[in-house]
Amino acid sequence: MSKFKILSLSLAVSIALFGCNDDEHHHHDDNKVIDGQTLTNTPEVVTKSDKKVSKQTITLAATSDLHGRLRGYDYAIDAEDKHAGLTRIATILEQQRTLDPNLILFDIGDTVQGNSAQLFNDMETHPMIEALQYLDYDLWVPGNHEFNFDRSFVDRNLENFDGAVISSNIKWESNNENYLRGFQIFNVNGCKVAVIGLTPSYVPNWEASAPEHFKGLKFEDELVATSAVVDDVIARHQPDIIVGALHLGRTDQGVGVYNIAAELADKFDVIMAGHEHATYIETVKKGDPNGTDISVKSGLVEDKAKSGTYNESNRHESVKIIEPGKWGSDLAMAKINVEKDASGKWKIIDTTLSNLDTKEIAEDQNMVDEYQDIHDRSVDDARETLGKVDGDFVNGGGADEATNDDYFVDDLGTRLYSTIHKAKVQDSALIDLIQFIEREKSGATISAAALFSDTSNLRDGQDYQRKDSANLYKYDNALIGVNITGANLKKYMEWSYNYFNTYKEGDLTVSFNPDVQAYNYDLFDGAIEYTVDLTKPTGERVDITLVDGKAFDPNAKYKLALNSYRFGTQGVPNGWFTKDDVFYDSSDATVPAIRDMITAYVTEHNGISINDEHLNTTHNWQIKQLAPNGEITQNRANSDIWKQFTNQQLCIHINPDNVKYPSISHALNMNDPTSYFENKAYKADGSATKEALNLGCSWTNDPNNKS
């Protein structure tokens, strides 16, 4: 027996369609969230099967970060996504439950937000939660995005979920009691499997502008809460297997999955994670907060030659961790072989992890039919025409710097050919639209906003449909107006421009810091003029010349508009401003979300025009290297490599580890032949199709891809 991992590993990931013991797995209609009390939809121990066996395989399966993907469809771009959707997960589940009818199935959060899911927030039970129940999920862990709405919304859906709802670190402020139970025990033929849940502690920061979203709740430190629950479970239930269901990235906020795994590797056997939108299979050793890849095929299959056997002799030394990507792209699986020893105790013989890819999987037609009305309503809403677009909102029309197209699709999903949206590196009406809305509504003179989607654009003559707002601004952020000193405004801007790597001689593109996600790059507009010099180190790049028509003053106070996420996640923690500096908050407004403000503006004006006064102003910022006389611009004019790149003869290496936003961590460089590779689909006679050229630059054709 291992040091602390009490007994054996046996996590059944199969629950036939209704595979629960009716006496022990049922939902009480009178279960309600009551202040100061723990919501428990299930008893602490749920029996999956009660047969007399001496050996078995415990199967666990998990999804995470579904973000409204009931179907494999992206309503923001009104297109099918063949690598997503619970309807594809359903097909895999039917196969897996044939292999193991005792399969234990859970979802690790960020389930009900995104992809037009907010259309159904007023329903008694959200369709995404109904869909989990349609597929007989045993357990649900709320993620941070479950708290994007009024707390009554998450309360209601937690109450109405028939399975277990768990999270170890959400507590009532009034008495420190758990909001939800921190764990669930599953009994599979006498083998006890404990599942420990976790929600990010940063929810109050991310929702700082809307405290009603987590009213009465506090979120404890992830490691402290998880450790306490694990110890409690061991003391009271002596489980044979302990599994984490943690909505947490590997290195999030300094207390990520790596830290928890390293600290508790002698107690956890498997950790199934979410939040990062990554697809990986790794192992973490006790005391070492770093992961080691033990997969082949880009995180889909465990490589047993790397991982070896995981059993009673070594289980206290490490823990395996896995995450199933986003949107239903994969189903994470853990198969744990156990058998009884001479004393009747369950012992782990081995454990094997895999991510089952949905890319080539057909949607389950019965489930498609069951939720056709939800899909139809979402499509109809996305296609509602609000007016016409007058003029191209990105210089030159297309979003991509090299090809002037809007986007292409490769094996990592939708992205730009050059991975650079023009509106991120040059002032454009596309981002000005968001910025103007922010200033008009808040009364600020300066605004900060990110361009979240690389597929966003507005082209001359197109119908402006409701989906265009969702694609341009895909989050449900509220709008905040703050008073900020010039010195702190400069700190904020320098923080934002850490998104870029330092320019190197011969660069033909900019490149991006792999440690910075694209949604953490803000542009600044309004009564401010500035330049950015990428030859300088981070912290010294931004030169602000004018603010409010006067020379920039570090000691002056300025009025700044920004979104609620940036306010609570970076602004207040970094000391750029405090809550007392807020002069505007849209949370109580009739239209609280920035995205919906854009929709309302376009509706009111029966469309949007490039000639609108607020969009037709003199450009207020530039990156010096991309100015007409800048280094990158000059390099392009003198480089045959750039011409070949724009013709799609050459491809750029992307950074696949930045899984939410694949981008380039090393710029295309005319002096460095290792910074690009040949597009074998290119044909000199021009006969290659755009689709073939795009796929020729897919991740799987990159010689840097070693998987």
Key phrases:
alpha/beta, 18 helices, 36 strands, globular, Metallo-depent_PP-like
Please provide a brief summary of the model.
This protein is of the alpha/beta class and 707 residues long.
How does this structure look, described?
- The chain has 707 residues and is an alpha/beta fold.
- 22% of the residues lie in helices and 24% in strands.
- The protein is built from 18 helices and 36 strands.
- The strands form ten sheets. Strands 1-9-10-12-13-18-14-15 form an eight-stranded mixed β-sheet, covered by helices on one side. The protein has a six-stranded mixed β-sheet with strand order 7-6-5-2-19-20, with no helix packed on it.
- Strand 29 and strand 30 (550-551) form a beta hairpin.
- The model is unreliable at 1-29 (pLDDT under 50).
Through-space gap between termini? 36 Å
Lateral arrangement of strands in the main beta sheet: 1-9-10-12-13-18-14-15
Largest beta-sheet characterization: 8 strands, mixed
Shape: globular
Structural class computed from helices and strand pairing: alpha/beta
Total helical elements: 18
DSSP strand content: 15-25%
Report Rg. 26 Å
> How many strands?
36
- The unreliable regions are 1-29
Range of helix content: 10-25%
Mean pLDDT: 91
Family: Belongs to the 5'-nucleotidase family.
Protein name: Bifunctional metallophosphatase/5'-nucleotidase
Domain Calcineurin-like phosphoesterase: 59-278
InterPro entries: 5'-Nucleotdase_C (IPR008334), 5'-Nucleotdase_C_sf (IPR036907), 5_nucleotidase/apyrase (IPR006179), Calcineurin-like_PHP (IPR004843), Metallo-depent_PP-like (IPR029052)
